[in-house]
Write a structure and sequence with these properties.
Blueprint (H helix, E strand, L loop, with lengths): L1 H54 L4 H11 L1 H14 L4 H26 L3 H16 L19 H6 L6 H30 L14 H26 L8 H27 L7 H26 L10 H4 L1 E11 L8 E11 L5 H80 L1
Antiparallel strand pairs: 1-2
Subcellular location: Membrane
Membrane topology: Multi-pass membrane protein
Protein name: Protein LAZ1 homolog 2
């Protein structure tokens, strides 16, 4: 009976595997063809939009980050169709896609800051709002007992982010950069674990690395997006001219859709709703992303349009030059010459060529990213170093106090002995005189 039962289970397992293998084989070619069509739409529309921004590169501080956000669609679409076409490239494409997703989220936050006029103006804006809410005295140095300025706290960040002032910008930047760092580190860690066979993509088992990294990245992503939401809630009135809600929803939908879609497919496979086939699971995720990127590309054509950048403000972004041409004309001999003057005004717009645009995006944008990453790492390590220094200082002070106490104790003992000896000698001498 045992042998028959084992044989029956083995036959059922082989039938189960063959059925699912047939499903993947039947759906593979149609999925690749349909996915390629949607990918082509996404690539054409996104590249056309990026090319338009490079041609009308009149506001570098904003457009360098906007191009990085729009470029997220072709990156996602290209890597998804490659993974769908060749499942062996799936892990490498996932790593690149995840890394760029984190960078795109950082770029979107930098884009909002640039639209507000840069970090200096954002700090002034946040400080002014904080002063209004806290009713600070106008004259510096004048203190009022009734006016209390709350220190930074998580409670204020969750309930009253407007009172944090410039600290809100630091929190927002830290939230975005920490996700960018963690996403990149976990992506390469997944590659290492996969080489050792302990990653288990889509497997919720304790001896695989996938569930642990999924929890860490989920928390990191939620925190980054929440920091971005809080920053948007405080500054949305000043961002109204760029229609921030439409941009925020379109970008947030891409990030959330791809992440939760992958987790949802993994859960459905874990509970048996979908077949537990790695190729089928990865293929379904990539196929859906191809379709979603085509939809996102169409939305970006309206949401991130180049229309606001077709015209520039001369005093802010260009150099105005006036050229006057004078000429004298004689109609007949003996008549006084007539003077003609022609004045032309020219506005020179810097950085409008595609070569200069790409150079500014790569060089200046890369320097800004490195600067913020270094600043974030220093902010994270700073409290730890202070804690270590405090601990070392306390240990040194404790040892110093103990040393001083022991030395003072020895001096007191010696003085007591000398006093006793002195007293004893005095008593002894007094007794002899009598």
């Amino acid at each position: 009976m045992n042998s028959l039962g084992a044989e029956h289970v083995r036959v059922m397992a082989s039938d189960y595997t063959s059925v699912h293998g047939n499903i993947y084989a039947d759906l593979y070619k149609p999925a690749v063809i349909i996915g390629a069509c949607f990918t082509a739409v996404a690539l054409v529309l996104s590249i056309f939009l990026i090319f338009q921004h490079l041609r009308s590169y009149n506001k570098p501080s904003e457009q360098k980050w906007l191009v990085a956000v729009v470029f997220m669609v072709p990156v996602y679409a290209a890597e998804s169709i490659l993974s769908l076409w060749n499942p062996n490239l799936s892990l490498a494409c996932d790593i690149l896609r995840n890394c760029y997703e984190a960078f795109a989220l950082y770029s979107f936050g930098s884009y909002l800051v640039a639209c507000l006029g840069g970090e200096t103006k954002v700090i002034e804006l946040l400080e002014n709002q904080s002063e209004k809410l806290l009713n600070r005295p106008l004259i510096e140095g004048v203190a009022d007992e009734d006016h209390t300025v709350p220190h930074w706290s998580l409670r204020n960040f969750f309930l009253r982010p407007s009172v944090l002032g410039k600290h809100l910008l630091n929190i927002e930047k830290f939230g975005l950069v920490q996700y960018m760092i963690l996403k990149t580190v976990c992506a390469f860690l997944a590659l290492v674990l996969e080489l050792f066979g302990v990653y288990g993509d889509g497997e919720f088992k304790w001896y695989y690395g996938y569930p642990y990294m999924a929890v860490v990245l989920n928390f990191s992503q939620m925190w980054a997006l929440y920091c971005l939401v809080q920053f948007y809630n405080v500054t949305h009135e000043r961002l109204e001219p760029i229609r921030p809600l439409a941009k925020f929803i379109s970008f947030k939908a891409i990030v959330f859709a791809t992440w939760w879609q992958g987790v949802g497919i993994a859960l459905l496979c874990a509970f048996g709703v979908l077949p537990k086939d790695v190729k089928l699971q990865s293929g379904l995720q990539n196929f859906l992303i191809c379709i979603e990127m085509a939809i996102a590309a169409v939305a970006h054509m309206f949401v991130f349009s180049t229309e606001p950048y077709h015209y520039i403000t001369a005093y802010e972004y260009g150099k105005v030059t006036t050229e006057t041409t004078k000429a004298e004309v004689k109609l007949e001999e003996g008549d006084a010459p007539a003077r003609l003057e022609k004045t032309e005004t020219k506005v020179e717009a810097p950085g409008t060529s595609i070569t200069e645009s790409v150079q500014d995006i790569v060089v200046d944008g890369g320097q800004r990213v490195v600067k913020d990453v270094v600043l974030t790492i220093n902010q994270a390590i700073g409290p730890v170093e202070k804690g270590v220094e405090k601990g070392v200082t306390k240990i040194q002070e404790t040892l110093h106090h103990r040393t001083v106490d022991s030395e003072s104790g020895e001096h007191e003992d010696k003085s007591e002995v000398e006093v006793e000896e002195h007293v004893g000698n005095t008593v002894r001498e007094t007794h002899i005189d009598l």
